[in-house]
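Backbone geometry:

***
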Amino acid sequence: MRIRPGRFAVLAVALLTASAALPATAANGQERQHSPSHPSSGGLSAVIRYTEYGIPHILAKNYPDLGFGTGWAQAADQVCTLADGFVTLRGERSRFFGPDAAPDGSLSSAAENLSSDLYFRGVRATGTVEKLLAEPAPRGPSRDSKDLMRGWAAGYNAWLAQNRITDPACRGASWVRPVTAVDVAARTFALAVLGGQGRAVDGITAARPPATTAARTAVGIPDAQSAARAARRLFDTADMGSNAVAFSGATTANGRGLLLGNPHYPWQGGRRFWQSQQTIPGELNVAGGALLGSTTVSIGHNARMAWSHTVATGVTLNLHQLTLDPADPTTYLVDGKPERMTRRTVTVESRGGPHVTRTQWWTRYGPVVTSLGAGLPLPWTSTTAYALNDPNAENLRAPDTALGFGRARGTADVLTTLRRTQGLPWINTIAADSGGHSLFTQSQVLPRITDELAQRCSTALGKALYPSSGIAVLDGSRGDCAPGSDPDAVQPGIFGPAHMPVLKDAPYSENSNDSAWLANTDRPLTGYERVFGPIGSPLSSRARGAKADVSAMAAKGELTVRDLQAQQFANRATSGDLIADDSARACAALPGGTATGSDGKAVDVSEACGVLKAWDHSMKTGSRGALLFDRFWRRLTAVTAPAQLWKVPFSAEDPVHTPNTLNTRAPGVATALADAVSELRAAGIALDATLGAHQVVVRGDRRIPVPGGTESLGVWNKVEPVWDAAAGGYTEVTTGSSYIQAVGWDGGRCPVARTLLTYSQSSNPNSPHFSDQTRLFSEGKWVTSRFCEKDILSSPGLRVIRVGEHR
């Protein structure tokens, strides 16, 4: 029996006001039992219903209470990871963990704690986040968003005050402390600038004006070709990626939409997803995965619409090359007039050593930066310096975008939300709805760098970087070279919604971190500026496989959620389809069945020929030969340029099927095969071993087999495992499939949804939800979403608690 809306409202009120009748059970065996009658004494409170796998369904009367329940439930599962992130945001890593240790990379690219602290303490000292919170909506966050932040902080703090930490990662640690709403907002800020200032933290905090004549005249900029390569690597999505596809009703069995979301995010640290449902009766009802510390669902679904995100190709920063006053390297010229840089002096407390005080230098364009990664130095000389422009440093709007998605009744509302909030910093959006609509859009906050502006204002370095990477280096000495403004943009210096690539109601809309160009191969998107991404360029192996798969699915038609589930765990290796058979034939043709390894020694590879020939071209845990091909392919692509690897080169006229045909005469082929065979034999691994015997994660005393494969193999179900031959193969995953959802509709009030959080809800090894969904992932199984009240209340493991502030 379905619960009618009126009955749902009555039920919700009953749960919120009379939960004394329900058992106050522990969500993860950590919460103390407390009196449920009036737990908050008039303060914030929420009801949390836990269903299978520790998934909380948070029920609240308003946004502050919803934030409270969300903060409480996140702390119960992830208190140590969250607390570590707040240490980062306060700029206190050097104090607690030492200046030379490395952060986990979840909130910036800082290589060491000291540079991370210098940056984030600078953000805090200048009140950057507070100023953004004070901006009126829509340029600043709405009242609902700020209420969620306030409530989240209160819920996190209440959990700390009322519970004992059992996670050994932070049990008894002095750095686990209460937080404020500004701390919560600061996490949103850090995520927003990940692709801009966050990518350049080391270069910002290391910037120093030249002190000597030699330093002032040093150049050290890499040549144009090297700079372009370094710039392209800077925006590589190896540590974060994703696949997502939306099918329109024209391809489905019942004329309604379908969505499969498969984001690839880190398996450890502060950029993990966490799964929940958030409900305010009559106002909001949404389920999905939230990035840790987020107050809203980041990727998810409601009763009528589902959405996912993929990391976009838009370049979220640009540089301004400054012309300096020869007499003062901290003064730059704009239209012939001198402007002094602003000093930002920051002091960081360091464990076991003196405080460290450094000065950062800021300009009208942003901070002075002396590098964008190790491969792209930007030296500060007596004549030249570089300033980084990051428009997302003025963007705290992502929570409002997520709230709008949660309230949306269809893909049209998704577009309306994106036009109104303009809050997504570095991601695309793919969505489908119960009305049969599909959507792809690259609606992100980008500096308004048009091709015309880049042509007119690029410096010599910019002319090398912009065409190949999309990074513009503009002449900072000219006021007319600053990014312009669009009338429909919510903040100056960014593109407005009218410029965004959008594809509506295509049979399928798919993205695998390629550009917007081929969201649908039959309806290519063109005409956008280079800063959004390339047009007519080669696709990654994963993107090629994804386009081939989803276009074939759309052509077949009659699709259901089961087809989405099958796609997720097909584990087809695109690169295997392209070259495995050729590799097996080349292997069989080797004289005497031997090949010479990179160490100059002859290796008997004859056994490998048959293994490669028999391999099923998949990265399933039971696949034999998958591990051999993986190790061979990694070695081959590491030493062989694409131009040498393929006989048939890339063609923009056939981007899914080119390049192809392995050049078996390339010198690296035989060498890579010999090295892979030697490597596996030295590790005691059979060449025909199953993948699951040697690609695992270790959780407690259990080795859990992991399906999927690395980026270059072109597997939809991407995982990036860590090779440890001494431990028997791959024994951990750094990045890969994370919060997965397959969503459709059948005409009823409840969506048909299957979900999976690959690394499970909790990072606490003492939690029952430390690896339960990881075991499901290993077996290719799913969680049936309990979205409607009847499904939540019928959960065989239902546990209900009411949480409050306890004043």
Q: What stands out?
A: Confidence is low (pLDDT under 50) at residues 1-11, 16-41. The CA atoms of residues 378 and 414 lie 40 Å apart.
